[in-house]
Design brief:
Blueprint (H helix, E strand, L loop, with lengths): L1 E6 L12 E4 L3 E3 L10 H6 L2 E3 L5 H4 L2 H8 L7 E5 L1 H10 L20 E5 L5 E4 L2 E7 L7 E7 L2 E5 L8 H7 L6 E5 L7 H7 L4 H8 L7 E5 L6 H11 L6 E2 L5 E3 L7
Parallel strand pairs: 3-4, 4-5, 5-6, 10-11, 11-12, 12-13
Antiparallel strand pairs: 1-2, 1-14, 2-3, 7-8, 8-9, 9-10
The protein binds zinc ion (ZN) (2 copies).
């Protein structure tokens, strides 16, 4: 399994983009600004897009991707998301005002986009990847994903704050090799962190104690202009976990190398 990090930032900068991961050649998890790194050939290979939630930093490039490839794409892009996320995108993005309704274009019979509803607990296979839909805690309905193939597995919290359900759900499955967790804030920003429902190092440390395994830990959604401060604090608070920052352009191959 090959995981390419297109975007892993809590914001934008010349070097960073928001959440989007490419699995193999055909699957996107989230479609934030980071997915603008895709070449034309890579865009045309995308068959499936899994969305964690409706926030703009996770969906904003999907309309552009479809607009760029319409007429060239040989297949309908299947989008998998919670009903809340799908309804939000229909009402506020693909509404004929902000952007055309690509679920009906270029023709209703062969549209650019098809929505598929998922829910927590779902378990399905797309290409070679098995996905399990995990609960998460955020300001809007949000999911995380557990992804596995014969060569390895990882889990992604999506945007997430302190909770029991994500960790309880993950404990029900075989341990993953790697865990990608949202950590946007510093301890001194705990008030806004709790309001925005993102982890900060202390709250993540408390929740990691609920996990019955010890996967490699990568932090994502780090703020672009305070990334080093958050990583410095996280490295101290999460010293047992040796967290690493998930960086744009990073390619993670499974089975994991020992220094991954
Ligand atoms: Zn969010
Ligand atoms: Zn986000």
């Amino acid at each position: 399994m090959k995981l390419t990090v297109l975007g892993a930032s809590g914001g934008i900068s010349p070097e960073t983009g928001t959440t989007s991961f490419l699995l193999g050649d055909s699957v996107l998890i989230d479609a934030g600004t980071g997915s603008s790194r895709l070449s034309q050939e890579q865009m045309l290979n995308i068959r499936y897009v899994l969305l964690t939630h409706s926030h703009l930093d996770h969906i904003c490039n999907l309309p552009f991707l479809l607009n760029t490839t319409i007429g060239e794409m040989k297949h309908t892009v299947e989008v998998f998301a919670l009903e809340h996320t799908i309804e939000a995108m229909k009402a506020h993005i693909f509404n004929g005002v902000i952007w055309p309704d690509f679920a009906k274009l270029p023709t209703p019979e062969n549209p650019a986009l098809r929505f598929n509803t998922i829910k927590v607990g779902d378990d399905f296979v797309l290409d070679d990847f098995r996905f399990q839909v995990l609960p998460a805690e955020h300001t809007v309905p949000t999911v995380g994903f557990r992804v596995s193939t014969g060569s390895g597995s990882f889990a992604f919290t999506g945007d997430c704050a302190k909770n029991d359900q994500f960790w309880h759900a993950l404990n029900q499955y075989d341990p993953v090799d790697l865990l990608i967790v949202d950590d946007q804030y510093l301890a001194c920003e705990s008030v806004i962190s709790k309001a925005a429902k993102h982890y900060y190092p202390e709250s993540l440390s408390e929740d990691l104690q609920k996990l019955e395994s010890h996967p490699k830990l990568y932090l994502t959604h780090l703020p672009p202009f305070k990334k080093n401060e958050v990583m410095s604090e996280a490295t101290k608070v999460l010293s047992d976990w040796h967290p690493k920052a998930l960086d744009e352009g990073m390619v993670i191959q499974f089975p994991l190398a020992s220094n991954a």
